[in-house]
Amino acid sequence: MNKNPLDSRRFIQEINQTPEFLDNLPRTPRSEMSSEALRGARINAIGQGASALAIRYDQNEMRDPNGELNSHLYNMIATVNDFYEAQQSADAFRKRYGHTKFRNINRPEVDAFKSDKQTITEFNHLLTEIINLGAEKFSFNELLTFMTQQYAASSGETNTRKFQGKAFSAIDGMRNEFNVEQLLIKNDIEFKKGTIAQDAQGGDIFVNRTPIDLKSSWMSAERAKIAAQEQGYNPNRIIWSGIEFEDFEGQLLLPAHTEARVMKRLIPAINKAAGTDYQAIAS
Asked: What is the rounded distance in angstroms from the CA atom of residue 218 to the CA atom of residue 263?
């Protein structure tokens, strides 16, 4: 009988049994620690245990056929709090400064914002790997539930609803990006995937050497285009993936019967952004 690949209890139990988790539990009596100190200590202990398990699964020490997927899931657990804190900090920066150019903002704040974006981008790339390996094993909502449960297990019930909103957006965005890449491959459109550093600067993919920033909704693309124009950047390089949320039918992989409709939206945007003349391959 196959194990549920997203059985939260199994992941929590494995972490709690690692020497790394046990060694990093606080030695100070709980009664002498503040709730915030206890929370921080638990986040650290879980992070250490999850990171150790990620290495063991990656090196196949656990003899598990889903070892690579498990390794990525444990890395996600180890960094899920960093992802949320970086999201909160980056959102606060954007709210405070809007579209103000970096040169008009204090350097330490800009550096902190760039560091937060790097953390978010690295986490998103990890999510893409999880989607790649697990798309046929679990649904969008199952992955969202797993992420939220793991966040709550380490952080407590603090900000769980807010976290779930950030996790929803992250999965949606990475699901879109991953499926766009699969569609480009199927339609013989030459592209390169951006590195983590390039992705952080809006280069999700490169077509005809042109960086393209993919957005998971038409509205988010339009908002980003307005911001780009205000900062003097080319708004045509920000495009909607062409995929409606409903097109996925609750899954992580785009159903085949929706692909032709999506490509009719996506290819003109790519051609406009990159100066190409691609045509969709008849399905």
From this structure: 15
Query: How many structural domains are present in the chain?
Result: 1
The reported pTM is 0.91
Structure tokens that stand for 193 in this block = 């995937």
Residues 6+ apart with CB under 8 A from 94: none
Q: Tell me how long the chain is.
A: 283
* Residue 283 falls inside a structural domain: no
Is residue 139 domain-resident? yes
Q: Given a cut of 50, is residue 89 above it in pLDDT? A: yes
Give the strands of the sheet with 238-240, arranged side by side: 192-193, 205-207, 210-215, 238-240
For residue 279, being part of any structural domain is answered with no
Give the whole-angstrom CA distance, residue 242 versus residue 184: 12
pLDDT digits (tens, 9 = 90+) for 28-50: 998 999 999 999 999 999 999 99
The model's pLDDT over 56-85, given as tens digits with 9 standing for 90+, comes to 999 988 888 899 999 999 999 999 999 999
Rounded to whole angstroms, the Cα distance separating 32 from 239 reads: 53
Containing domain of residue 24, as a range?
8-274
Structural domain contains residue 281? no
**Are 238 and 221 contacting, i.e. CB atoms less than 8 angstroms apart?**
yes
Structure tokens at 144: 């969202």
Cβ 242 vs Cβ 263: under 8 Å: yes
DSSP characters over 233-283: --GGGEEE-S--GGGGTTSSSPPGGGHHHHHHHHHHHHHHHHT----PPP-
Question: Following DSSP, what letter does each residue of 92-147 receive, concatenated?
Answer: HHHHHHTT--GGGS-HHHHHHHHHHHHHHHHHHHHHHHHHHHHTTT--HHHHHHHH
β-partners of residue 240 are 215
